[in-house]
Design brief:
Helix content: 55-70%
Largest sheet: 7 strands, mixed
Number of strands: 11
Distance between the termini: 78 Å
Oligomer: single chain
Structural class: alpha+beta
């Protein structure tokens, strides 16, 4: 609280403006009571727009309108020299702070601290006993209409529980289940933002199981209904949905304990997953990677075995549509589609009779995305425990995956990311005309470079001369 008191004193040290009755509210107060550093300073007052504008002018700060809802205007005042130094000032809902707190989502967020004129904290106002729920680690809706008034709070409850390690009390869980269908009226952008925050926690799979029990996951992803009734072949001990949930759990287990699988390369693995939303999207892809199975389910007429030929391509198509519905970026969509389409490939590469050059080409195609692809394949293998599967195959694949990640970071990554040792201009200088044969020669040289068969420009040019003779 001291840090915020100092910051507020600096912001409010502004002559010539009238400072209204201000209150610190929401997650700011909750985190302070938990003894955690609060990320933001959230204030409410009457006349928020006028006050925020006056404060911005006085401090020569930027003023950003954040009016997401007509009845809940909010304004951000940002220090122009430090973008991390800002205040969020919202219009008080109702005539008093107590009325405002009664409109909030959960009791743990319905606590206010009055701010004195000099920026120092005043008394704590806790009409809904939120501090007690904080001590007990409980998330409880602040009022009977908390979820109806904003159904996104269903996901927000899960997100806060996952982040803080809290439990959601039974009456609130019951309300979440009864109102789950209202999530269809919430914008995709808001849903996606909450999902990514949940997926970024270390126990997201447990909370997805809880959401599934409440009927929430099926509302967001109606595609999973078909998975729940889709039986599998002897390589699996669960139906498609049960298997998908287990793959998500095993994916999270690998991510949470990278040292156990990747040893000295675990830091590199973490760096890859920490960029471009790979970590949360890998978990989500693990959950959805088999969405193509119901549409491709068949039976081999000779053996009677259940088959899913082409389910990875069908799943990639479905995951692409889901990604678009969630309004993910093009890069994030492509990542999920790629992992779904490739989730069988790593298993095939680990079979033992695949040429090293074939593996290298796969690494070159995927780049750093090969790392999450390998993790997904590991989790998929670990989750296939049917009577027709074997410990030997699972262990062989896990060993290959560990070696593959090691080799990728140790040698392959530098090779496949390096520039071409020979270009089309080099071939033209040797007397070759541009055309399809030039493309084939350049590809062969690049393949040799990736495989480590040529390691210098001189060696690559020598190979080019030999290929020119062969093609001529």
């Amino acid at each position: 609280m001291n840090m915020h008191a100092v910051s507020l004193k600096n912001w409010l040290a502004c002559k010539g403006i009238e400072i209204p009755r201000l209150y610190l509210v929401g997650g700011t107060v909750r985190d302070m009571l938990l003894g955690k550093p609060a990320k933001d300073i959230d204030l409410v007052c009457k006349g928020a727009k006028v006050f925020a504008g006056a404060l911005a002018r006085c401090k020569d700060a930027a003023l950003i309108s954040m009016e997401k809802k007509p009845d809940e205007p909010c304004y951000r005042v940002v220090d122009r020299t430090d973008g991390n130094n800002f205040l969020d000032i919202a219009e008080m809902r109702g005539m008093t702070i107590f009325e405002d707190l009664s409109h909030r989502d959960f009791t743990i967020n319905a606590i206010a601290v009055e701010v004195k004129g000099d920026g120092s904290p005043g008394p704590v106002l806790d009409p809904l006993n939120g501090a007690e729920d904080i001590r007990d680690g409980i998330i409880r809706q602040a009022g009977d209409r908390a979820i109806v008034s904003d159904p996104l709070r269903i996901l927000r409850a899960v997100r806060i529980a996952a982040a803080l390690g809290f439990s959601i009390e039974e009456a609130t869980l019951k309300e979440m289940a009864q109102r789950a269908a209202l999530l269809t009226k919430v914008s995709s952008e808001r849903i996606t933002a909450e999902l990514l925050l949940i997926l970024n926690t270390v126990r997201s799979a447990d909370f997805f199981r809880q959401m599934d029990g409440l009927g929430v996951v099926e509302v967001i992803f109606p595609e999973i209904r078909a998975l729940k009734g889709c039986a599998q072949n002897g390589f699996h001990h669960l139906n498609v949905w049960g298997h998908s949930m287990l793959v998500m759990e095993n994916t999270e287990r690998i991510i949470n304990r990278p040292d156990d699988y990747f040893g000295q390369w675990s830091g590199k693995v973490a760096d890859v997953l920490d960029s471009e939303n790979r970590l949360p999207l890998l978990k989500l892809t693990a959950l959805l990677h088999d969405t193509g199975k119901p549409a491709t389910r068949g039976t081999n007429p000779d053996t009677g075995r259940i088959t899913f030929y082409g389910h990875n391509e069908e799943g990639a198509r479905t995951v692409g549509l889901i990604s678009e519905r969630l309004k993910l970026s093009g890069r994030n969509r492509d990542f999920m589609v790629l992992l779904t389409a490739e989730h069988l490939r790593a298993f095939q590469l680990a079979s033992g009779d695949v040429k090293a050059n074939t593996v290298t080409k796969w690494f070159r195609k995927l780049g750093d995305d090969a790392v999450p692809a390998i993790i997904l394949s590991m989790a998929d293998t670990m989750s296939s425990l049917g009577p027709d599967s074997s410990d030997f195959i699972r262990e062989r694949h896990i060993d290959w995956a560990k070696r593959g990640v090691k080799e990728y970071f140790e040698t392959v990554k530098a090779r496949v990311e390096g520039p071409n040792l020979v270009t089309g201009n080099d071939l033209i200088a040797m007397g070759m005309e541009p055309g399809p044969e030039m493309g084939r020669i350049l590809k062969e040289i690049r393949d040799a470079q990736d495989a480590g068969e040529v390691g210098s420009r001189e060696e690559a040019l020598e190979l080019a001369k030999k290929l020119l003779i062969f093609y001529n």
